[in-house]
Amino acid sequence: MHYPVLEIDLEKLRHNTEIELEFFHRHGIEIMGVNKVFNGIAETAAAVVRGGMKVVAESITANLKKLKDLPCEKALLRSPGLSEIEDVVRYADISLVSEIGTIEALSKEAVRQNRVHKILLMIDMGDIREGIWFEETEEIETAVKAVLELPGLALYGLGTNYGCYGTVLATEKNARDFVELARSLERKYSFRFPYLSGGNCSSYHLVEKGILPKEINHLRIGAQHIYGIEYVEGRYLDGYCHSGKEIEKYTSDAYILKAEIIELRRKPTVPVGELGMDSFMRTKTFSDRGVRKQAILSFGLQEVPCESIHPVDEDILVLGQTSNHTIIDVEDAEREYRLGDIVDFEVDYTALMLLCNSGIDKIFINQK
Ligand SMILES: *Cc1c(COP(=O)(O)O)cnc(C)c1O
């Protein structure tokens, strides 16, 4: 085998999904399983489906094509570009939409392909990313009417999103405002949204506390089964969460970056010579810790920043990186490291995303 590789434990992912679905179904909430961090890996999507997920979502249309044989519905988790409508209708059953022009294009193409495309109409409740602004009542009504009336379309639901761009927290208040908006549309046009899709895993704490309005019957969740349900408590930003008072990076042993030692030598901890800048035009200072045993691993910032990975061997100190090298201090390690040895790292959400988008090979374990 060539290294580095990213090892993915599919049984842990399946198990996490099962626990997550049990929890949300108990609260009357249906889940769309978000696979986007894996960038279209069919094995991870299949594991989530084995865990009971009925809909898998991706952010990139080409990734949906990779999942076309999976026995579940597929969703495009962002607005389709007008340039990709044909593939969206072909490979997605559902998409998140916030533009009337996109709704019209989807209708036309769905009719042409003799398919029904489901629309999750997105409302922006304040996070200033996607969605029709919640105060633009007329625009919202026009979009709802279009989805209800145009051929080839079905209304999947009304959706909103928090904590992605604007860092807006999901609260009982903005959830209630969202439900109120949905109910007033339903009263005006005498119909019912099948789903009110009230957010992502940052809404978990509201469900757990029992204060998410019961009208919200749908969430779109990725990180929670990817990292385990406890991940979300006090979620701060992608890949980070509060543990106690500290904001700590959350990693999981379901994903292990395995890298090979390509050089192992004793070296001084302070460079010798006149100092200028490193490969990224940064100046640096070094503290003298004497001569230490230092290993070089065959990956670098090109694949993943070392701030987003965590050595499984706690005695290893990560010193830094250049584009293609990661340098670690193994002086204090109990294990006697050798040239060619493999060093394991847990990875956070950011690292998982970057690694899945890098050329690094993925291997799957516990694939049932
Ligand atoms: C990424 C995303 C989600 C899922 O977010 P998680 O943090 O993985 O739960 C849900 N909805 C939308 C629109 C997204 O882009």
Question: Main traits of this protein?
Answer:
single chain; 368 residues; alpha/beta; TIM Barrel; Lyase, Ornithine Decarboxylase, Chain A, domain 1; 9-stranded parallel sheet; 8-stranded mixed sheet; 19 strands; 28% helix; 27% strand; elongated; binds pyridoxal-5'-phosphate
Structural write-up:
With 368 residues, the protein is of the alpha/beta class. It has two domains: 10-249, Alanine racemase (TIM Barrel); 255-365, Beta Barrel (Lyase, Ornithine Decarboxylase, Chain A, domain 1), CATH 2.40.37. It contains ten helices and 19 strands. It has helices spanning 10-26, 42-50, 61-66, 85-91, 100-113, 137-149, 172-189, 204-208, 223-227, 349-357, and strands at 5-9, 30-34, 55-58, 73-76, 94-97, 117-124, 132-133, 153-159, 195-197, 218-221, 240-243, 246-249, 252-268, 291-297, 309-311, 317-321, 326-329, 342-347, 361-365. The strands form three sheets. Strands 2, 3, 4, 5, 6, 7, 8, 9 and 10 form a nine-stranded parallel beta sheet that branches. Strands 1, 13, 14, 15, 16, 17, 18 and 19 form an eight-stranded mixed beta sheet that branches. A two-stranded antiparallel ribbon has the order 11-12. The radius of gyration is 24 Å and the shape is elongated. Mean pLDDT is 93; it is low at 232-248. The structure holds pyridoxal-5'-phosphate (PLP). Pyridoxal-5'-phosphate (PLP) is lined by residues 34, 36, 77, 96, 161, 164, 200-201, 220-224. Pyridoxal-5'-phosphate binds at residues 34, 36, 77, 96, 161, 164, 200-201, 220-224.
